[in-house]
Sequence to fold (231 residues):
Amino acid sequence: MTTARESLRLSVIVPTLNEQEHIGALLHDLASLRSAGHEVILVDGSSSDATRAVAAAWVDRIVEAKRGRASQMNAGAHAASGGVLWFLHADTRLVQGAGDAVLQAVADGRAWGRFDVRLSGQQRLLRVVETLMNLRSRISGVATGDQGIFVTRAAFSAVGGFPAIPLMEDIALCKLLRRQARPACIRRPRLQTSSRRWEEHGILRTIVLMWRLRLAYALGTEPAELVRRYP
Fold:
């Protein structure tokens, strides 16, 4: 039988693949949550760099899983002992109070939710991108993985976890959860998510690519086909 304490224990699940340059900063941010009795689980998809070595002293458990965010996050959820699952990307940064915001939302009866985000880069166009990301998510009730999706274990189990697809697993999960309840949309504090993909590939080019992907998915294109079209 799950106790009240266990139901409000966070299991932070971080999928990784060759993230040795970024994982340390996030794990440092999570150290205070571990000290408070919450757990951090790193789920590695066979990294070829030093990701696991960098993380070893900062996590409660390292799980090996088949490469792919859906399979890795499902493996982390299976290994978790907490009543609240919080999925974070390896290049996310937390500000003080983020964990408390998750716990407060669940204590208020919310089954799942996500955060508004701020992109790490300084270019003005990135402020527009993050504003539109946050607004779209609030209106649609759908979040992307870099928005720090959290969900109670009961709600996660009820929808069967992340669908086993190679892309859009975060959107697919949100659509399943949305049938049960609208998400808690935490506006403050914000999570900081890396802007590296926008900066590496071009901001406008990345915006167009992401909208093409989402439109194709909404129109019924299979995720495996999306991966072939947009590797």
